[in-house]
Prior knowledge:
disordered N terminus; 223 residues; mainly beta; single chain; eight-stranded antiparallel beta barrel; 2 helices
Amino acid sequence: xxxxxxxxxxxxxxxxxxxxxxxxxxxxxxxxxxxxxxxxVFGFYYYEKYKTKILLEGQITDDKVTLMESPxxxxxxxxxxxxTITDSIFSGNWVDKPHDKMLKFELTIKLDxxxxxxxxxxxxxxxxxxxxxxxxxxxxxxxxxxxxxxxxFEISNGTESGCTGFLKGLVELNDFKxxxxxxxxxxxxxxxxxxxxxxxxxxxCDLHGMICPFNGEYKKxxx
Length: 223
């Protein structure tokens, strides 16, 4: 699998999906899905006991993989996976730097396939800019597909006065048109897409734009 992985990733347009199952510390069963494009990796994992998807983002260099868990605007590794893909196994350490924890993990690759870039996915992926952008304000949203109707997103905005907002997450876009993101820190962020336009409706997203809201209309500018 590793040889095929490297061969497929050598092409500039190559993208693929890996689905894996295994355990952390020999006792916490998890499931992981990764989309790999050249050296960039996006995906998620969840504990089988809870089923809540946790965003992963990182890099692959040869057979070495680093995945940041729930990455923020600082883009520094705090918690996540550091490991190596050998044959059909992804293994290494799950690391929690703030709490000085390190646990071994081992995952078996169950599925390894090229990514199907359908018209619906291609129509959504890319960068969207706020219709209200000016010399005093800038807002943008980036979408990347992970698998099926599940997308990675990154929202950032800011004003001349110093107000800023930033959020990365996962959203399931039903029929590639509508989806809702919600966490303990963000009560509700609703996505509505139609004809290369995005409408964001925000409700109590406390730490990610309450002072500098994400609300508004965005237009797709690139793939």
